[in-house]
Specification:
Largest sheet: 6 strands, parallel
Number of strands: 15
Distance between the termini: 4 Å
Bound molecules: 3-phosphoglyceric acid
CATH class of the largest domain: Alpha Beta
């Protein structure tokens, strides 16, 4: 795999695939709590600016499935990038076509263009050859700096390297370095904390770390499937029935595996109805598990305090409802206070740290959610493989 330092970018049109998939505030802008993925790409953009390259940014937002969706246009991203870089970022309303080509031909050294949401084109997801060729015409060198989307075998990841000299940007390089070290030579005790909703998307990582980690903590709705698989009552909690059998095959009695010992339950997830703390297994028929309980928080905090490496992905409760954010917040604070090397990834998880102003206290915030999980499960990422 090649890196930025292997190329001379002077006066070259450089296509940079970035991951700017962020949420917007109520005012439709990207604020300083949501711009972490933009900030993470600045080193690569600045490196290319120093080399007097002509920069063309490619990015997606949401999942428009090949159609133009007005509120998924990238204008607020261009605006925030301009603020962060302190120089103009010209946003075009398209990705391809004669007008785009003409504009890019006239591009000056040090200019930055952001093309429209690349997922407005079906060719991106379907990896269509004519779409890839159209994109490749726009640049002379391709840089992948979008670690967070490198698990997708889409045109802007696996297609462009077939046509253009290619390399990894500084963010992608750093992510791969940090994650590979943790995966291959972790210090011990290694504590892995996995939350969120779907155990199906995290089962491979769980299996991998049940072997490698010293402690594997499960929280959030995905722990319900484990609790249910152990034959304990979960009432009306979110559960992935189809995963129960697979979860039962895990070594559920392994002492490394920690699931909640008590939980916060309520009949209503909006936070309007009363809630109570119940020992795990004591959830009534109409109730749902919505957060981890105080004893669980203490147990998890104790484990975190002893760790040398902490990996965290996924909230411990229903983070969208303020009443059920306690568990996630306490875990976030415990990780931030720990002297261990901490790696945190996943949109909701990083947003939680951001809201608590704790991002500075984390050793490495990964820009990958799904990508980080796939990497840590020991799988290959198509976007990274394509660069090799
Ligand atoms: C993410 O937000 O994890 C990445 O941008 C990938 O987005 P996707 O899951 O829609 O492919």
């Amino acid at each position: 795999m090649k890196f930025l330092r292997d190329f001379n970018f002077y006066n070259k049109r450089v296509l940079v695939r970035a991951d700017f998939n962020v949420s917007f505030g109520d005012d439709g802008r990207v604020d300083d709590k949501e711009d972490w993925r933009l900030k993470a790409t600045l080193p690569t953009i600045n490196y290319l600016l120093n080399q007097k390259a002509k920069i063309i940014l490619l990015a997606h937002l949401g999942r428009p499935e090949g159609k133009i969706i007005e509120n998924l246009r990238l204008n607020p991203i261009a605006q925030r990038l301009e603020e962060l870089l302190g120089r103009p970022v010209i946003k075009l309303d398209d990705c391809l076509g004669r007008e785009v080509e003409e504009r890019l031909k006239a591009l000056q050294k040090g200019e930055i263009i952001l093309l429209e949401n690349i997922r407005f084109y079906p060719g991106e997801k379907n990896n269509q050859e004519d779409f890839i060729r159209g994109l490749a015409k726009l640049g002379e060198i391709y840089v992948n700096d979008a670690f967070g989307t490198s698990h997708r075998a889409h045109a802007s990841f696996v297609g462009l390297p077939k046509y253009l000299p290619s390399c990894a940007g500084l963010l992608l390089e750093k992510e791969v370095k940090v994650l590979s070290t943790l995966l291959e030579k972790p210090e011990h005790p290694l504590t892995v904390i996995i939350g969120g909703v779907k155990i199906s998307t995290k089962i491979k990582m769980i299996k991998n770390f049940l072997d490698k980690a010293d402690d594997l903590i499960l929280g959030g709705a995905l722990a319900n499937t484990v609790i249910g698989a152990k034959g304990l009552a979960i009432g009306k909690s979110i559960v992935e029935e189809e995963m129960v059998e697979e979860v039962q095959k895990l070594e559920l009695t392994n002492i490394k595996l920690h699931i909640p010992v008590d939980v916060v339950v309520s009949v209503d997830s909006s936070g309007q109805a009363p809630s109570r703390v119940a020992p795990v297994g004591n959830t009534q028929k109409e109730e749902m598990i919505l957060d981890i309980g105080p004893d669980t928080i203490e147990l998890f905090k104790r484990i975190i305090s002893q760790a040398k490496i902490i990996i965290w992905n996924g909230p411990m409760g229903l983070f969208e409802t303020e009443k059920f954010t306690q568990g996630t917040k306490e875990i976030a604070k415990a990780i931030a206070q720990s002297s261990a090397f901490s790696l945190v990834g996943g949109g909701d998880t990083v947003n939680c740290l951001s809201q608590l102003s704790l991002t500075e206290k984390i050793s490495h915030i990964s820009t990958g959610g799904g990508a980080m999980l796939q990497f840590l499960a020991g799988e290959k990422l198509p976007g990274i493989e394509a660069l090799k």
